[in-house]
Each structure stands twice: as structure tokens, then as C-alpha cells.
Specification:
By secondary structure, the protein is an alpha/beta fold. It has one domain (about 5-175): Vaccinia Virus protein VP39 (Rossmann fold, 3-Layer(aba) Sandwich), CATH 3.40.50. It has 6 helices and 9 strands, in the order H-E-H-E-H-E-H-E-H-E-E-E-H-E-E. It has helices at about 5-10, 30-35, 45-55, 75, 95-100, 145-150, and strands at about 20, 40-45, 60-65, 80-85, 105-115, 120-125, 135-140, 155-160, 170-175. Strands 3-2-1-4-5-9-8 form a 7-stranded mixed beta sheet, sandwiched between helices. Helix 5 (about 95-100) links the parallel strand 4 (about 80-85) and strand 5 (about 105-115). The chain is globular, with a radius of gyration of 15 Å. It starts with a helix and ends with a strand.
Amino acid sequence: MNSELTILSKIPNIKDKCVLELGCCIGSKTKIIAKLCKEVVALEGRETNLKVCFKLKLPNVYYYLFNVEKLTFDSFGKFDIIFHSGVLYHLTNPVEHLKNIFKISNCIILDTHYTTAKKQEIRPEENQKSRAGLSTYSVFLPKKQIFKLFKDYKIHVFSEGYHFHKSRIKFIATK
């Protein structure tokens, strides 16, 4: 079973849930989420990627060209689940972004790289690539800082796993 199916299957009544997917890229994970959930709103910052997504013709998925760094509660409202895979480390202000998404859902599935340094790391972003961020740089957070943010907002990590990349984690967190 692939890792998205594994992690989504841990959520009770998943078939009745509405999911906000951040950074859907070309829809590879969107297809999996759509099979399991009632509805998916998939956000992507690159128009070329969205054109590929539209070809998937998934009836319960709504795609939007949207920069997830600008996401607030007012953008799309509240969701049952936020699926946040491979995006956080491409953002220029990941701390503020996390604070915003904590207001949008009580359940967050996060898959992200982190830095092993003690402080945030700023790294250049290869902006031309379809999987890169939209800025010229990105900010990698230390793992401890990511978990502290969740704890500060009373969001509890209840299923944690590690990726084959040494500095990448995947987990489900709920209020």
C-alpha cells in the first residue's frame, strides 16, 4: 500500500471528509485522495501543473491556481483535513503559514523536509522547476520547531513516520 493510502486510512470516516490539498503539483496524490474522500479542493501555484491536473477529470476535485503562502481561513473556509505534502520547505515564511492553516482544519497531514540545524535554514530555490517553490528562496524549519508549533496550538501528533530521506517526516496531527 502506498504511503498516502496508509496515512489516510488511519482517519475515521475518511469517505465523508472534505480535504484541502496544498500544492497538488500534477495531481499524483490528488488521485489517491479523491478515491478515498468525499471532496478535494486542490491548490497549485503553477499554471502548467494545473493543466495536467485538469486532464485527470476527477469528478470530486476542484482545482485552483493559488499561492499557498497567501492562504488564510478567508480564502476557502474550513476543511475536515489539510493534506500538506512536500510544500512547507518551499515556503518563505513556513511559521506564519502553519499558524494560518491551524485555523482552517483540526486535522493536518504533513509530509515535509526539515533542517537538522538548530535554527531555520534559508536555501536558494530553483524556481524554474515544476516542483519548486514560487520564490527565489525557501526556509527549512528544524524538526523541533515544527513540533513545538503544533504543540503551542494544541494540535497533537498521533501518527508519525519517517521518509526514506533522512531529514523528512510525515505525520497526522489533530486538535
